[in-house]
Design a protein that fits this description.
The chain is mainly α and 407 residues long. It is 80% helix and 0% strand. It has 17 helices and no strands. The N terminus and C terminus are likely disordered.
């Protein structure tokens, strides 16, 4: 049953909008500058593949930062840590805008990410503060559908900013977004009241991660969502090169192609929200993981052989990213379901796993770069297959255990 819901439909809609904005910070921070990566590489004199490390550096800060913000929020509430995170994000974005070398840009991206991750991890925890069970899965799907607007318009907006200004203007835009989000945050109430906060010392809360990692069900959910994110960030890091340089798409049109995948994500999230009460989140998550594996293999073959040209690669990647709608919301909800008292810590662990594998996926694309789209395709395929195997392992880990009611 929902808890602590805002009292009016208008208030609920505003809460949904602010939470969507908070959860969109990972996409906002990266998608907006994707079309500018070739221009950034030229302006900074970076070698091929080096600018891909700006994605990997962001993911390092994003994944490690979550492990700290989660326990802090369980002890001190959600709103103060998000505020501190947004301030770090603003400073990091300004540093990116002023960077004069590729290593400096990567370093500022790490700081930017350490702040941005507070918004994402604690927005998920705020959903768990308010909802549980199937309503939580529906709310998470709705949030992901709404926040998909950011990556839908982000690359196109970044392309147009680049057309009328420099790549540095993109990061100044992020500074402005951070300031506006900070103002919107303080219109929301605190979702974790004092009586529900943990009283244990922070060092003990951090040590709890070891105990959480000993839970087979949680490991299954971490694997399904985490490996899928590895493929997604290989897609994020690899498509600017694959589309713009291999297939000669303009930076402005790149945003349109990237947006097609976001449309698929939005559609799948809406479908998931409608079906989750009937079929359960776990079943839909498994179907999505199998679909991601098959689409990943198709993308690898299209990238390696040139089958279908740009359209063949685009079609396979469209189906891969669309599987987000069935995997991510259900994996997050499943992981959070059994630990409501430690929602911040579990949400942080989920996020750290997802973005940690994202580091591997994006870095692999950069390190294996050979002038073709093939490395991106094969990395996506490997992570898609690993996600499906994790879903199968999750089913096997429940053998002999009393069934859990459908979420």
């Amino acid at each position: 049953m929902p808890r602590l819901l805002p009292p009016t439909p208008a208030r609920q809609l505003w809460t949904l909008a602010v939470l969507s904005l908070l959860m969109g910070f990972a996409s906002i921070s990266t998608d907006l500058y994707l079309p500018a990566m070739p221009a950034m590489r030229a302006a900074l004199g970076a070698s091929p593949g080096t600018l891909d490390l700006t994605v990997s550096g962001f993911l390092i800060g994003f994944s490690l930062g979550q492990l700290l913000w989660g326990p802090i929020s369980d002890r001190y509430g959600r709103r103060l840590p998000v505020t501190l995170g947004l301030l770090l994000f603003i400073v990091g974005s300004a540093g990116c805008a002023l960077a004069d070398s590729a290593p400096a840009l990567v370093a500022w991206r790490v700081l930017q990410a350490a702040g941005a991750c507070a918004s994402v991890v604690l927005a998920r925890a705020m959903v768990r503060d308010l909802y549980s069970g199937a309503p939580a899965a529906r709310m998470m799907s709705t949030l992901m559908t709404v926040m998909a607007i950011a990556p839908l318009i982000g690359p196109s907006a970044g392309g147009w900013i680049l057309a009328f200004g420099s790549w540095r203007a993109i990061f100044w835009t992020l500074v402005g977004i951070g300031v506006l989000t900070l103002a919107a945050l303080w219109t929301l109430p605190e979702t974790l009241p004092a009586q529900r906060r943990t009283r244990e010392p922070l060092r003990r809360a951090l040590a709890r991660y070891g105990a959480l990692l000993g839970q087979p069900r949680l490991l299954g959910y971490l694997g399904v969502g985490g490996f899928f994110y590895g493929g997604m960030y290989a897609y994020v890091a690899g498509t600017p090169f694959a589309y713009i340089e291999v297939h000669h798409v303009s930076p402005q049109h790149y945003g349109l192609l990237f947006g097609l995948g976001i449309v698929g994500i939005m559609g799948a999230n809406l479908l998931n929200a409608r079906l989750v009460g009937r079929f359960g989140g776990d079943r839909l998550m498994r179907a999505g993981a199998v679909g991601a594996a098959l689409a990943g293999v198709a993308a690898a073959l299209a990238a390696a052989t040139g089958w279908g040209g740009l359209n063949g690669l685009l079609l396979a990647l469209f189906f891969f990213v669309s599987c987000t709608g069935f995997i991510v919301a259900n994996a997050i909800t499943g992981a959070l379901e059994d630990e409501p008292a430690a929602a911040g810590a579990v949400s942080a662990l989920v996020g750290a796993t997802q973005y940690g594998t994202g580091i591997l996926g994006s870095a692999a694309v950069g390190l294996l770069a050979d002038g073709t789209a093939a490395p991106m395709g094969w990395v996506i395929a490997v992570f898609g297959i690993a996600s499906a195997l994790s879903a199968a392992w999750l089913v096997g880990s429940r053998a002999g255990v009393a069934p859990v009611p459908a979420r």
